[in-house]
């Protein structure tokens, strides 16, 4: 009997790149993704024990040694880690919290990550969301949940605008919406030479 093969929601999509690398888009599948629910003080205790991180401020994220913690609400945090580390990370967080009231949910296979970067990435994102993406308003270390086109996603700015190659963003989206968002990002970059991509489900990208 053949072993099951893990397949990402965008296995059928190749990375895309606009002219002169003004935009770059690719999936980073299977990275560990956990939702941690706990009182802020308890969450900080766990994050410090597991990753040496404080709890991030409102709408911010912190990272170290391959682990990222992003603020989602006063008692809810998104914890990201390396591929294949979700069970180890979940067990470590739960162990650190011990008897304290908490919940650690493994959502690794519910979401995937789209990496979107380049000197024109910010302008392309502005076409898809009402979130203020101006460089004065959304900066490196920010993390927000918002709507892009017709789907919800969390967005984290990983590198600032002065970085060689332009700013970089991670968009964390449900598997079922990943193909749509990938194509919407490609469409938003058409004026800079991004190749076109058509959603498998036939969704209208921007209207």
TrEMBL record:
Pfam families from the xrefs? SoxG
Q: Which Gene3D superfamilies match?
A: Heterotetrameric sarcosine oxidase, Probable tRNA modification gtpase trme, domain 1
Leader sequence range is none
Q: Which SUPFAM superfamilies match?
A: Folate-binding domain
* InterPro entries, alphabetized: SoxG, TrmE/GcvT-like
Task: Report the protein name in the record.
Answer: Sarcosine oxidase subunit gamma
